[in-house]
Every structure is written in structure tokens, then in C-alpha cells.
Design goal:
two-stranded parallel sheet, single chain, 485 residues, 55% helix, six-stranded parallel sheet, alpha/beta
Length: 485
């Protein structure tokens, strides 16, 4: 049975009888969408009156796969139908899931939601093969969250304490994927079904392909990027969530109020649902929710991501850069983190400017359209990256010659503009932004940042004031570049 997108799942439920439902169903992706798909599937398969005897649940982090399979092969006493649920399975994780888990941990822990943060935190630790005690070492700690000024992020130790107080353990690092794959291929007792939920999947895994072939995969993933297509996908999901909740409550919302609600919440479906409940309750007997209702009831819950701040800096948009800086600091981000983010952005712009000034850069023009850029100019950027990497490797071989009869590992360079050859758009955007600066301005800005970093750490000057002053000079085009070439 083919993979079913979340948007098409209701139609799948409508035209598939419970008796014809596949033996195994995998529901993966966004938490709130997974929950809705899971609830709808369970309702479709097992009547409410039969769930006490006909449904058995297992925790993918605490229980073993063997327990779930043993239950699946045991007949229910009073019901011919049986559904075994494996919630939060880790069977589909790979190294690709690490960043997604990091993001989930940080998002929940930063707002004090330690219970919500604990599951992805423990799963990440299991994937990394480390324990709580290992996090005392910075080398292990950075795999979970980057330090701030050489110290653990403020939420890490409280999260560890929460897990220990609740008796939560890091799951064993083992791969039961082959065991489940074999069980699926062998088959389950008639009218017995396995329902699996998970947040991240590696679609290359043989287990995923086996379920896609023998059962059903309900895809609830939503792209988390910042491309126009990703943002449109996120907005479509949020609008659908708003419409469904309001229809159930018999209410509607003005377009400006809807936009404000989505903007203030950001892409967090759980928070969006909570905010909708507040608005519906606040409106009382009124059918229409207005922008004034949103303003009166909600506080801004969206955490302005760091990339929006650095994007405003790269655009030399001073009002936006200052506004994002203030929001991020208000949300608990340390000025040194912002300083580091600016430095990374400017370093990348300097790399782009160096390419433009190189021999290969002759193919670039700020007047190029994106379709024009994807051909020869993008290949020129890739060729320049390869040349830079080769040069760095040659330098590294001279400074650190490899031992005799032992091959040296490949050198990874942060000086490459192309991070993903299949995604030229970010490179296109970086080159366009780089054209707003001269090489001298960027060099001068990086020197200024080094000086500000020293003053933040060794003087009593206000870090926020230092950043504001720098942004005004940079975005206002008033950096001193004389004598710094």
C-alpha cells in the first residue's frame, strides 16, 4: 500500500473498511498531526467499548519490542480484534535524526517544559550512545547543545535533574529493526494489527520500506526549513488546524486575526491549539473572533529564530535587526550567542564576496534570476569550493603530515559555500546579500566583533548596548575601513 500524506488520510479512512485495514501502520512526523491520525485510526479499528480488552499500548522508550510482539501474537480474551500500539518508537532513527531531536529538546526545555523535553532528550542520548555522566565533558555535551561562553546551556542541568528525579533512563542503544521486519514479513494473527508512532524516520531503512510495501505509512511530516515552499507548507497546516478547531466550536475568525494568531504563535501546533482554546473561550457567545481578541488574550509565544536575526543583519535592515535582537535577548539568549551568530553570518558573506572577486566569480551577477543561477554560475561556485578544499588539504598535509602507511582522513572545510549540492537557493541568496557589502567592510566588521567580544568578557560595558552600536555602524554603512585592507 503506498505512503499516504496526512492531507489525504481522511479520504483513506473513508474508503477503507476496518476489516481491510493493513496489519501494520506507521504514523510519523509532526506530533500533533500524528496524534490526530492515530486517534482517527484507533477509532476506525476498535470501538470505544472494546478498547479495554482489544488495545494494548507499549512505550517505545521504556518497553521492549519483544514485549510488543509477544502481545501481538497473543489472542485477546473477549475481542476477536486486537491492536497493539508502539508509541514513540526509535526503530527508524538514524544519524539524520540527531538535529531534529536537538531542536525538540531545546524548544521544550527553554520554556521549562521538562516533561516534554525528556523524551527526545533520552532518545538523542541513546542515539549518541552516551549517558548523563558523560555530559560533564564538553566534547559530549556539544552533541546535545552548544555551550554558552564555555558553560552548559542554562536548561541542561535542570533537565538532567528532572530525568533522574523521575527515574527516567537512557534507553539501550540497540537496533530491533531487523526483528520487526522479519515479524512483518512472517505475518500476524488474523485481525491483529500493529500501530506504530514516531517523530523521525529514515526512509532508506529496510524496515520503513517493508512497512510501505506490506502495510501503510501515514506521513505527517511538515518541512521545517525557511524556503518559500517550506513556509507555505507550514502555513497551510496551521490554517487547516485553525479552521478545524473553529468549525468544531461553531466560530469563525477575521483574516487579520488569523494572520496575527499564526504570526504570534509560530510553527508550534501544540501552542497553536492551546491559543485557539483560549480565544474560543474568550469569545464566549460571539461567533466571530477578531484581531482585538487575539491582542487581548495572547502573549507573543513565537521564539524569533536566530536566522531571522542574522538574515536582517545580512540584508542591512537595521530596524529588523534591532527588533529581532531585543526579542531574542528577552527570550533568554545571551548577547555572546548573538555575537557568534553575526560572526558566522559575516564570515559566510566574506566567503561569498571572495568567490565573486575570484576568476570563477565572473559568471555571477546580482541581476541573475534563480533559474539562470542554477546552471553555470552554481557550477562555478562548486568548482571554487573544490579548489579551496584542495588547497586547505595541501596546507594540512604540510603542517600535519600523516603517519607512514596510514591514510589521512579527508579534511572537512567550513569555507565551502555549497553545503548541499541539491539545494542551490541558499547559495543564491547568500551571493545576493554579499553584494550589499564590500570585502573591506566585512573584514572590518569581523575585526570589530573580535574587539566587542573582548569588551563583553573583560569590561563592565552593557553587552546589549555594544551590539546595538555595532549593528548601527554595520547596517548604516558607517564602519571604518581605512587602514584595514
Amino acid at each position: 500500500m503506498p505512503l499516504v500524506a496526512y492531507n489525504d488520510f481522511n479520504e483513506q479512512l473513508r474508503r477503507t473498511q476496518a476489516s481491510d485495514w493493513p496489519a501494520v501502520t506507521l504514523i510519523c512526523g509532526e506530533e500533533m498531526l500524528c496524534k490526530k491520525a492515530f486517534d482517527a485510526t484507533l477509532t476506525h479499528l476498535v470501538p470505544e467499548s472494546e478498547r479495554t480488552m482489544g488495545v494494548e499500548r507499549f512505550d517505545g522508550g521504556e518497553d521492549t519490542l519483544g514485549q510488543a510482539l509477544a502481545s501481538l501474537n497473543t489472542y485477546a480474551l473477549l475481542s476477536p480484534d486486537k491492536v497493539v500500539v508502539l508509541e514513540g518508537a526509535r526503530l527508524f532513527y538514524s544519524a539524520k535524526a540527531q538535529q531534529g531531536l536537538r531542536d525538540k529538546v531545546a524548544q521544550a526545555a527553554q520554556t521549562g517544559e521538562m516533561k516534554k523535553a525528556s523524551r527526545p532528550f533520552l532518545n538523542l542520548m541513546a542515539l549518541l550512545g552516551i549517558g548523563f555522566d558523560d555530559l560533564s565533558a564538553a566534547t559530549h555535551r556539544k552533541k546535545v547543545a552548544d555551550d554558552v561562553d564555555g558553560q552548559p546551556v542554562v536548561w541542561l542541568n535542570p533537565l538532567i535533574d528532572y530525568c533522574r528525579e523521575k527515574g527516567l533512563r537512557v534507553p539501550e542503544k540497540k537496533d530491533d529493526a531487523d526483528t520487526l521486519k522479519a515479524a512483518i514479513q512472517k505475518g500476524f494473527p488474523d485481525r491483529h494489527r500493529l500501530l506504530i508512532t514516531t517523530d523521525f524516520v529514515d526512509r532508506r531503512k529496510a524496515l520503513f520500506k517493508a512497512i510501505e510495501e506490506k502495510g501503510m505509512v501515514v506521513d505527517c511530516t511538515v518541512p521545517k526549513g525557511e524556503s518559500r515552499a517550506d513556509r507555505m507548507a507550514q502555513e497551510a497546516v496551521m490554517k487547516a488546524t485553525v479552521d478545524a478547531a473553529l468549525a468544531q466550536a461553531g466560530k469563525s475568525i477575521r483574516s487579520d486575526a488569523r494572520q496575527r494568531l499564526i504570526e504570534w504563535t509560530g510553527f508550534d501546533l501544540r501552542m497553536l491549539s492551546n491559543n485557539l482554546e483560549k480565544l474560543i473561550s474568550f469569545a464566549g457567545g460571539r461567533k466571530m473572533i477578531t484581531g482585538a481578541d487575539v491582542t487581548a488574550v495572547l502573549q507573543r509565544t513565537r521564539k524569533d529564530p536566530i536566522f531571522e536575526f542574522t538574515g536582517a543583519v545580512a540584508d542591512r535592515n537595521l530596524p529588523e535587526a534591532l527588533a529581532f535582537m531585543q526579542r531574542l535577548i528577552h527570550d533568554g539568549m545571551h548577547p555572546l550567542q548573538l555575537l557568534s551568530a553575526i560572526a558566522n553570518q559575516l564570515r559566510r558573506l566574506l566567503m561569498a564576496n571572495a568567490f565573486i572577486a575570484s576568476d570563477q566569480g565572473g559568471s555571477w551577477s546580482p541581476h541573475l534570476s534563480f533559474p539562470q543561477f542554477k546552471s553555470a554560475p552554481f557550477k562555478a561556485v562548486q568548482a571554487n569550493d573544490e579548489k579551496t578544499t584542495t588547497l586547505i588539504k595541501a596546507w594540512d598535509d604540510i603542517l600535519n603530515p600523516p603517519p607512514e602507511k596510514k591514510s589521512k582522513t579527508a579534511v572537512s572545510s567550513d569555507l565551502a559555500l555549497v553545503k548541499n549540492p541539491r539545494s542551490p537557493f541558499p547559495v543564491f541568496q547568500t551571493l545576493k546579500k554579499a553584494d550589499l557589502f564590500s570585502i573591506e567592510e566585512l573584514r572590518s566588521a569581523i575585526i570589530d566583533l573580535s574587539d566587542i567580544d573582548l569588551r563583553m568578557k573583560s569590561t563592565g560595558q552593557d553587552p546589549q548596548a555594544l551590539l546595538e552600536s555595532f549593528l548601527i555602524r554595520l547596517c548604516g554603512g558607517r564602519l571604518k575601513v581605512e587602514g584595514r585592507r
